[in-house]
Amino acid sequence: MRVLAAMSGGVDSAVAAARAVEAGHEVIGVHLALSAKPGTLRTGARGCCTIEDSRDARRAADILGIPFYVWDFAERFTEEVVETFVGEYAAGRTPNPCVTCNEKIKFEALLDKAMALGFDAVATGHYARLSIVDGVPELRRAADEDKDQSYVLASLTSEQLAHALFPLGDSHKPEVRAEAERRGLAVARKPDSHDICFIPDGDTKKFLEKKLGERPGELVDAETGAVLGRHTGVHGFTVGQRKGLGIEAPAPDGRPRYVLSLEPVSGTVKVGSADRLAVTEIRGDRPIWPGERPPASPAECVVQVRAHGGTADAVAETDSAGVRIRLREPLRGVAPGQVVVLYRPDRGGDLVLGSAKIAATA
């Protein structure tokens, strides 16, 4: 096969490209330039998508003996990822930009271009397992549970998964680093990237305030209706948040307060005690089913609402509006805008059934 290896400049994508070469594929490496001003992105090992990363990717490609190119996706990234991120926060929702980037950049824009150029698949360094069963892609959790990235890939369609390769799915991170050392890849000991690549200092609140300005509102006790303080914009909060609320006085019961809901039109941030965060039902819209059709309804499943953690047994029912999920045990800190991923419990809880954007909770 002709394989386009997406090389971020990290150890995972470098080893994934190496394994694609070793498997006998015709491999070409490509690094995505995602910022019109790459010098403004975080520098150092904790970042990603920087000038340093493009150089690391090029050096890895040279060692592997494969052609290497840098493709400019900055405009598309800004429109699809950054502007969506800002817009979701402005609307009182909590997005996951990594999910959006995988969906809109790596497996839409990049894959579309790769297919137009005659490639058969795109290989990435994601930790997830992928197989084709009776012509239908099956996406499963990675062997390394601590590195599993099936959650951030669960929004991919069946067609996109059919042209994806995840060579690291059966490996554990220490094995990948050791292999990089053996292959002489300089990124073998490079730390993993963290945080959001387009927020240089990691200060999401400051980034959003710069984009959206101040939109003053009130912090209100959800139970009593009492005004507890003021804020500069609902975009500075997310459901489940405890720190940095700016509440002027302690609650009458002396217990901590958490963000329960955001109302962007009125600018109201409702807060309350931890027990009011419990969610027993999730409503998801725009569901995506890798198997091309929804599971039989009602379906027993295990749901996950965050990239790491936030799992519970549940029953899911589909209808024309999307999917309704009833949790068998409550989850906390479930925010509209997040993605809920459904896993099949009778396959070890690791087979992805589908995903949806969280529209509401109860």
Automatic annotation (TrEMBL):
Tell me yes or no: is Cytoplasm among this UniProt entry's keywords. yes
- Where does the tRNA-specific 2-thiouridylase MnmA-like C-terminal domain start and stop, copy by copy? 280-358
List where in the cell it is found: Cytoplasm
Q: Mainly resides where?
A: cytoplasm
* Region described as Interaction with tRNA: spans on this chain: 147-149
Q: State the reactions this protein catalyses.
A: S-sulfanyl-L-cysteinyl-[protein] + uridine(34) in tRNA + AH2 + ATP = 2-thiouridine(34) in tRNA + L-cysteinyl-[protein] + A + AMP + diphosphate + H(+)
Q: Active site: which residues? A: 101, 197
Gene Ontology MF terms in the entry: tRNA-uridine 2-sulfurtransferase activity
Q: One of this protein's Pfam families, by short name?
A: tRNA_Me_trans_M
Q: Which UniProt keywords apply?
A: ATP-binding, Cytoplasm, Disulfide bond, Nucleotide-binding, RNA-binding, Transferase, tRNA processing, tRNA-binding
| Record site feature (Interaction with tRNA), residues | 126, 338
List, alphabetically, the InterPro entries matched: MnmA-like, MnmA-like_C, MnmA-like_central, MnmA-like_central_sf, Rossmann-like_a/b/a_fold
Residues engaged in binding ATP = 6-13, 32, 125
Q: What is its EC number?
A: 2.8.1.13
Positions of the tRNA-specific 2-thiouridylase MnmA-like central domain: 205-272
Identify its protein family: Belongs to the MnmA/TRMU family.
> Which purpose does this protein serve, as stated in its record?
Catalyzes the 2-thiolation of uridine at the wobble position (U34) of tRNA, leading to the formation of s(2)U34.
Q: What is the protein name for this chain? A: tRNA-specific 2-thiouridylase MnmA
Native organism = Amycolatopsis pigmentata
